[in-house]
Amino acid sequence: MIHPTAIIEEGAQLAGGVQVGPYSLIGPGVSIDSGTRVGPHVVLTGRTRIGRNNRIFQFCSLGEAPQDKKYSGEDTELVIGDNNTIRENCTFSRGTKQGGGVTRIGDDNWVMAYSHIAHDCRMGSHNIMANGATLAGHVTVGDWVIFAGYSGAHQFCQIGDHAFLGMYGGVSQDVPAYVMVSGQPPRPRGINTEGLRRRGFGKSQIRNIREAYKLIYLRSLSREEAIEQLQERLDDQPELQVMLDSVVGSSRGLLR
């Protein structure tokens, strides 16, 4: 299960059933739960906690010091949940003291080659990051979000549940739940209809979400007026709650 060329430093905690490939390095602050497979030439360092049944491919670097000039060696953390796939050459950084001290990734995420998750990011579950996608520091990502190849988010941005960022789309403002963004520069293009269908949303729910999108983007309403109208619909259209939450909670302003 542990290749003889792998280096497991004293203090590292590996549960039963963990596999570690050739020439990988597991630092003293790392803990890995059962069923996780670490490929060859992987570096896991810092105070890094990795859950069950993850697959980490070759040449990844997870838990290294954040790329932040303010960081001066504080004891910060990277936490990765269960059942994630992390492909070749990915880099995830630990948090910073100023950002709460933790970079956190949920469960069942699919992170493709050369993707980067920076310090203090919070990513939910069931997300896809295609090749080269990048999150700057302090980005918050919900659940079921898709980042197409080489897309990304500026620091402190929030990306809502079920959103879609098109190829090469780098956003510098918040993207509400369900919204599809594409183009150069990226702009809202409607809702992620196909993604919602695949996840079991019914026709009436998709229609309601599309109408909510129109309230926010096409009806010339102020943010406050759109919020008020969304709130009035919640009793009959509970699927709008996450969209409302992402609009209300926006700190950088909505991408338009």
In short:
By secondary structure, this protein is of the alpha/beta class. It is built from 4 helices and 27 strands.
Topology diagram in text:
Elements: E1 7-8, E2 13-14, E3 19-20, E4 25-26, E5 30-32, E6 37-38, E7 43-44, E8 47-50, E9 55-56, E10 61-64, E11 77-80, E12 85-86, E13 91-93, E14 102-105, E15 110-111, E16 116-117, E17 122-123, E18 128-129, E19 134-135, E20 140-141, E21 146-147, E22 152-153, E23 158-159, E24 164-165, E25 170-171, E26 179-182, E27 187-191, H1 193-198, H2 203-217, H3 223-233, H4 241-248
Helix pairs in contact: 3-4
List the defining traits of the structure above.
single chain, 256 residues, alpha/beta, UDP N-Acetylglucosamine Acyltransferase, domain 1, Udp N-acetylglucosamine O-acyltransferase, Domain 2, 9-stranded parallel β-sheet, 27 strands, 16% helix
